Amino acid sequence: MNTSPSADTAPFSPQSAPLPVPQPVPSSVPQTHGAHQVAQTGIMRPSPVLSARGLLQSYGTGGTTTRALDGVDLDIARADSLAVMGPSGCGKTTLLHILAGILTPTSGTVLHEGTDLASLGDRRRTRLRRSDFGFVFQDGQLLPELTALENVILPRMLGGTSRRAATAEAASWLDRLGLSGMHDRRPTQLSGGQAQRVAIARALAGRPSVVFADEPTGALDQATGQSVLQILADSCRDNGAALVMVTHDAQVAAACRRTVTMQDGRIAQEFVRPAATAGTTGSHRTDGATR
Ligand code: ADP
Ligand code: MG
Q1: Which of 77, 143, 267, 268 has a CA that sits 20 to 30 A from residue 13's CA?
Q2: Per-residue tens of pLDDT for the chain, all 291 residues
Q3: How far is the centre of ligand 2, averaged over its atoms, from the C-alpha of 83 (Å)?
C-alpha cells in the first residue's frame, strides 16, 4: 500500500487553465446516508454508488501525527465524474485510498452501494476491489513482463473469469481504445499514452461501478494526457462507471462533471459543470467570476 505523498510536483494553480462555465454548488452535500435523496428542487436523485461521511485520517502517533483528512463528506453518483483537486499534501491520495477501501480511515464511514466497507473483512474487501473497482495510476503500473492483452486479462482471471472469456473481453476493450494490433506488445514497446490506454482497458474490463484514477496523466505530455483523459471519462460514462480522479491540473479536471477542491484535509469548494460542457474547455473560472 502506498499512502506516501504523490509525485505531484508541479505547483497547484486552479486558475492556470480555462474551464467551462461553472455552477457553484451551495452546501448541497447531503448530510445523511440514504437510499434516495430528494434535492431541494424535489427531483429524486439516484442513490450514490459511494457515500462517505465524517472521514478523518491521521498518520503517525504522538507528537508526529499528521491529520491527512479532517472531516470529509462526499457522495458520488453512478456514471458521474468527480475530480479531486488541491495542492500537494492536502489529502487527495489518502481520500482516494479510503474511498477505494485500500486504507481504513481513523474514523468515518464509506458506503459502497449501501454496504459499509468497514463491515467487510479483508478478503471481502479485496474481492470487492477486484469486482467493482477499477484503478488507473500515474504510470499505468503495467506488469513489464506481460503483453498488453495479458495485463488486461490477469485481474479478470484472478477474479475467476475463464482465460477464454477474459481474452475475448480484453481484446474488445483494447480495440475500442484504439490499440488493435498492439495486443502482443509489452509495456516497453508502447508509448506512454498507449500504456495508459492499456491501463484504462484493464480498469474497465471488469465493468466496475467506480474507477479511481490518481494523477492518471501525470507522466504524459499535455496533448497525450488530454486525449487519454477524455477516453477515460467517456469510457466510464458510457459504461455506467463513476470516475473519481485525483489531479492538480485544472485542465485535466475539466474532463469531469464535478470538481471538489481540497485544502488541509477538507473539501474547501465544489463546482459542477453543465453536462454539455464537461470534457470541453471553456473560458470561465471555476468560482463563477468572469475573466
Ligand atoms: P496528496 O495526495 O494531496 O499530495 P496525501 O494524501 O498523499 O496528499 O498526503 C496527505 C498528508 O498525509 C501529507 O502531509 C502526507 O505527508 C501525509 N501522509 C500521506 N501518507 C502518509 C503515510 N503513509 N505516513 C505518514 N504520513 C503520510
Ligand atoms: Mg497524491
Answers
A1: 77
A2: 444 444 333 333 433 334 444 444 444 444 444 434 444 444 555 679 999 999 999 999 877 899 999 999 999 999 999 999 999 999 999 999 999 999 999 999 999 999 999 999 889 998 899 889 999 987 768 999 999 999 999 999 988 899 999 999 999 999 988 899 999 999 999 998 899 999 999 999 989 999 999 988 877 888 888 888 888 899 999 999 999 999 888 888 888 999 999 999 999 999 998 765 555 443 333 333 322
A3: 13
Say which residue the cell 487519454 belongs to.
228
Distance between CA atoms of residues 110 and 70, nearest Å: 15
CA 263 to ligand 1 center in whole angstroms: 13
> Does residue 14 belong to any structural domain of this protein?
no
Q: What is the distance in A from the centroid of ligand 1 to the CA of 265?
A: 10
40 within 8 A of 290, measured Cβ to Cβ = no
| Nearest atom, ligand 1, residue 2 CA | 23
Largest Cα span, the chain: 56
How far does residue 68's CA lie from ligand 1's centre (Å)?
A: 6
Ligand showing the shortest atom-to-Cα distance for residue 263: 1
Q: Ligand 1: which residue has its CA nearest to atom 13?
A: 89
Q: How many domains does the chain have?
A: 1
Cα 99–Cα 89–Cα 110 angle in degrees, nearest 5: 15
Position 8 in a domain: no
Ligand nearest to the CA of 68: 1
How would you classify the pairing of strands 210-214 and 242-246?
parallel
pTM over 0.85: no
Q: Is residue 7 part of a domain?
A: no
Ligand 1 atom, smallest distance to 88 CA:
4
Residue 136 sits in a domain whose CATH number is 3.40.50.300
Looking at the CA of residue 96, tell me the nearest atom of ligand 1.
6
What's the helix, strand, coil split of the chain in %, to 5?
30, 25, 45
